[in-house]
Write a structure and sequence with these properties.
- This protein is an all-alpha fold.
- It is built from two helices and no strands.
- The protein is elongated and about 45 Å long.
- The relative contact order is 0.17.
Length: 59
């Protein structure tokens, strides 16, 4: 179930994306690379949520 009527993410997915975003910012602040994998993970979470909600709307 989406967190609000205006987005596709559940509360758990929102928490995951926020955690990944915090990790990305922490790595950038420390001057480290390797954020592409984290960005991909966040994008995959959002894409799955959008696909799930699009399928639910078609029913």
């Amino acid at each position: 179930m989406p967190a609000t009527n205006h987005d596709d993410l559940t509360w758990r997915e929102i928490a995951q994306v926020v955690r990944i975003g915090a990790q990305i910012q922490h790595r950038k602040a420390r001057g480290k690379g390797g954020i592409a994998r984290l960005e991909r993970q966040a994008d995959e979470i959002v894409a799955k949520a959008q696909a799930r909600e699009a399928a639910r709307r078609k029913k």
